[in-house]
């Protein structure tokens, strides 16, 4: 294969990042861009000088034959897109959360496996140096508790603010840290989650129609006995100091990870010099994915669709726990 032919479905913020990374790769060429807002797709054609803009993914995939499709659409838009990509036999990278209905994601996973397609899901943090360092460091440590959180404000995209279109902040956003927990500590056995509302006022915050929770706290128990408590919040405005990331309490050490920024380790010698985030991780993820498409060797892909399903299931279980008040067994 000389150049990998890529097409994008959804030409908004996230695929804008993938676009800028892929544009730097000399062995990738774009054959199509699709967005229901055509000018967004046309903008990428203009910037890259490659491919053609489409409003409908079916029209695009009937006309061009990419080796790989990058899918980054609002969470409630998944299903038909992937099934058509799979029908055409095309490998794909899709953004989290891969669907809001678990059965839709399961169906996609099954169909992609049946066709032996190469899949990737955008859990970028798995490719970050800090995550790898944490994983190596704790490999021979005894870990009991983990605390952490994804705490901030409300993202600007309109679909984010309703459960029906985003799945809420745990599913749409904090799924990154839930996935990172799985990457570090293995599979969860149960989760209990409690949530609250009443701080965010749709008018005051400029988010009419807002109906997601303002905050929540989830307790996840893992097969290996680790218990993690993850906060999720989106009500903070100027003046509220938040700390996103996680703290891992080992028997004889503590790891303080600040989200996509730095890692501090404390052991019997005290605090060590902070380790800073290295190369930006989405670029690493995209490079690995394109290499897998070229060679067929998928061993470096750290999150494929089948594995990512388990992180989706965990976050959907948080929502179920909030709704029912029950501990959800996984
Ligand atoms: N991995 C990460 O770190 C990361 C970061 C940001 C966003 N995301 C995820 O990426 C996804 C998209 O987020 P975003 O920030 O790019 O949103 P966005 O609103 O900026 O972009 C989504 C684009 O998809 C288009 N679209 C909607 N329905 C479509 C359809 N049926 N066919 C084609 N195009 C369609 C929209 O017009 C829009 O341009 C979300 O699931 C989000 O959670 C992941």
A few lines on this structure:
This protein is of the alpha/beta class and about 325 residues long. The chain is built from ten helices and 16 strands.
Largest sheet: 10 strands, mixed
State the name of the first-level CATH class of the largest domain: Alpha Beta
Number of strands: 16
CATH-level-2 architecture of the largest domain: 2-Layer Sandwich
Q: How many structural domains?
A: 2
CATH topology of the largest domain: Dihydrodipicolinate Reductase, domain 2
Structural class by SSE content: alpha/beta
Overall shape = globular
The ordered string of helix (H) and strand (E) elements is EHEHEHEHEHEHEHHEEEEEEEEHHE
Number of helix segments? 10
Question: Cofactors and ligands present?
Answer: nicotinamide-adenine-dinucleotide
The helix content, as a percent range, equals 25-40%
How far is the first residue's CA from the last residue's CA? 42 Å
Indicate the radius of gyration in whole angstroms: 20 Å
Uncertain parts: none
Mean pLDDT: 98
Percent range for β-strand residues: 25-35%
């Amino acid at each position: 294969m000389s150049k990998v032919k890529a097409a994008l479905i959804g030409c908004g913020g996230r695929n804008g990042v993938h676009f800028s990374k892929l544009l730097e790769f000399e062995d990738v060429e774009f054959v199509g861009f699709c967005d229901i807002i055509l000018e967004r797709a046309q903008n990428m054609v203009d910037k890259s000088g490659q491919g053609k803009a489409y409003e409908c993914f079916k029209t695009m995939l009937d006309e061009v034959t990419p080796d790989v499709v990058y899918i980054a659409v609002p969470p409630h838009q998944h299903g038909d897109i992937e099934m058509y990509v799979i029908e055409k036999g095309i490998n794909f990278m899709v953004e989290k959360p891969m669907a809001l209905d678990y059965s839709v994601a399961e169906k996609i996973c099954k169909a992609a496996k049946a066709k032996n397609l190469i899949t990737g899901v955008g859990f970028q943090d798995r490719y970050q140096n800090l995550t790898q360092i944490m994983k190596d460091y704790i490999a021979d440590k005894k870990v009991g508790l983990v605390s952490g959180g994804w705490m901030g404000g409300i993202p600007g995209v309109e679909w984010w603010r309703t459960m029906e279109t985003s799945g809420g902040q745990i599913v749409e956003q904090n799924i990154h840290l839930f996935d990172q927990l799985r990457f570090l500590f293995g599979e969860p056995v149960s989760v209990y989650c409690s949530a609250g509302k009443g701080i965010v006022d749709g008018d005051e915050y400029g988010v009419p129609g807002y109906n997601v929770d303002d905050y929540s706290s989830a307790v996840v128990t893992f097969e290996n006995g680790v218990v993690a408590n993850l906060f999720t919040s989106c009500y903070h405005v100027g003046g509220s100091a938040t700390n996103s990331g996680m703290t891992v309490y080992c028997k004889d050490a503590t790891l303080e990870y600040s989200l996509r920024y730095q890692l501090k380790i404390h052991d019997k010698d005290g605090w060590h010099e902070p380790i800073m985030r290295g190369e930006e991780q989405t670029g690493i993820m995209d490079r690995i994915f394109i290499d897998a498409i070229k060679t067929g060797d998928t061993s470096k892909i750290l999150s494929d669709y089948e594995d990512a399903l388990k992180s989706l299931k965990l976050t959907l279980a948080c929502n179920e726990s909030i709704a029912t008040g029950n501990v959800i067994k996984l």
